[in-house]
């Protein structure tokens, strides 16, 4: 394992976790993480971090119901037909 | 126009949260969301079905906001200036993606799981605005880098570096929060 490999993999770690790398680059980062004892924990740490953010995202506030109604009536005036449910 | 119900309206909550962060006040946010959906509806023919309606709505929302700001010029200049100053550099060689103290304490990052949602959301709100916006759009709203670049009007390289540093900063805040709340016990040795 060269130091350059590690630096490269760590610099692209979030891109990897966010699914932003193409298949070849993602495979290179994944391979490095799997075989490098020094880098693997970073993947775990950042993975746990992002899991917590994604969980918290579900607890975000919703729009006030009155706003939803106002927009529905505004759009009805513009010609949008009510949803068939 | 059934597609507007299916593709645009489900994002009302997300657009409201985005507007709230932009404007800083619930009343202004509501006006902004109304205007956003009105414009989106009128321009719906220009939208390509099945593409990402969420980032399209965010972009409209931000444009409406910036145009209003330009009109009353209260905060626009300072916001823009701050955005340019904070982070135009890419990720530097040797920069690491984590807050070292927390990483050394808990390399598996298990303490993140013990922090309540409100603690996490509050820590995100406390980030400097440029970092906060990137983190919110990526980690809370699930936008791709290219979409974030469009919505915020910045290059993709800047999105990457703001996420890289914003997340590290957030880890620091969460670690401090966890320490203060007793989730993390630091032994002074």
Describe the 3D structure:
The complex is a heterodimer of chains A (85) and B (189). By secondary structure, chain A is mainly α. Chain A has one domain. Chain A has helices spanning 3-11, 13-17, 23-35, 40-57, 65-77. The mean pLDDT of chain A is 92. Chain B has 189 residues and is mostly helical. Chain B folds into two domains: 2-74, Rna Polymerase Sigma Factor, Chain: A (Orthogonal Bundle); 90-181, Winged helix-like DNA-binding domain superfamily/Winged helix DNA-binding domain (Arc Repressor Mutant, subunit A, Orthogonal Bundle). Chain B is 68% helix and 0% strand. In chain B, helix 4 (53-72) runs parallel beside helix 9 (145-152) and helix 9 packs across helix 10. Chain B is elongated. Chains A and B meet through helix 1, helix 2, helix 4 and helix 5 of A and helix 1, helix 2, helix 3, helix 7 and helix 8 of B.
Q: Main traits of this protein?
A:
heterodimer; A: 85 residues; mainly alpha; elongated; B: mainly alpha; Rna Polymerase Sigma Factor, Chain: A; Arc Repressor Mutant, subunit A
């Amino acid at each position: 394992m060269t130091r350059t490999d590690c630096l490269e993999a760590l610099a692209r770690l979030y891109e990897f976790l966010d699914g932003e790398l193409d298949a070849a680059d993602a495979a290179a980062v994944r391979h490095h993480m799997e075989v490098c004892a020094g880098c693997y924990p970073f993947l775990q740490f950042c993975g746990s971090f992002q899991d917590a953010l994604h969980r918290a995202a579900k607890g975000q506030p919703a729009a006030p119901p009155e706003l939803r109604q106002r927009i529905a009536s505004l759009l009805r005036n513009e010609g949008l037909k009510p949803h068939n449910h | 126009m059934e597609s507007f119900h299916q593709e645009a309206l489900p994002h009302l909550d997300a657009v409201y949260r985005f507007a709230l962060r932009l404007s800083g006040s619930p009343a202004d946010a509501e006006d902004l969301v109304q205007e956003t959906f009105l414009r989106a509806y009128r321009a719906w023919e220009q939208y390509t079905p099945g593409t990402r309606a969420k980032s399209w709505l965010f972009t409209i929302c931000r444009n409406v906001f910036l145009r209003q700001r330009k009109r009353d010029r209260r905060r626009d200049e300072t916001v823009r200036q701050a955005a340019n100053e904070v982070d135009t550099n890419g990720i530097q060689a040797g920069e690491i993606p984590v807050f070292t103290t927390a990483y050394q304490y808990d390399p598996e990052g298990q303490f993140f799981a013990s922090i309540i949602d409100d603690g996490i959301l509050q820590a995100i709100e406390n980030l400097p605005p440029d970092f906060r916006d990137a983190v919110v759009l990526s980690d809370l709203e699930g936008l791709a880098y290219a979409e974030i670049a469009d919505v915020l009007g910045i290059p993709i390289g800047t999105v990457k570096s703001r996420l890289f540093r914003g997340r590290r900063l957030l880890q620091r805040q969460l670690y401090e929060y966890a320490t203060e709340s007793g989730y993390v016990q630091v032994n002074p040795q």
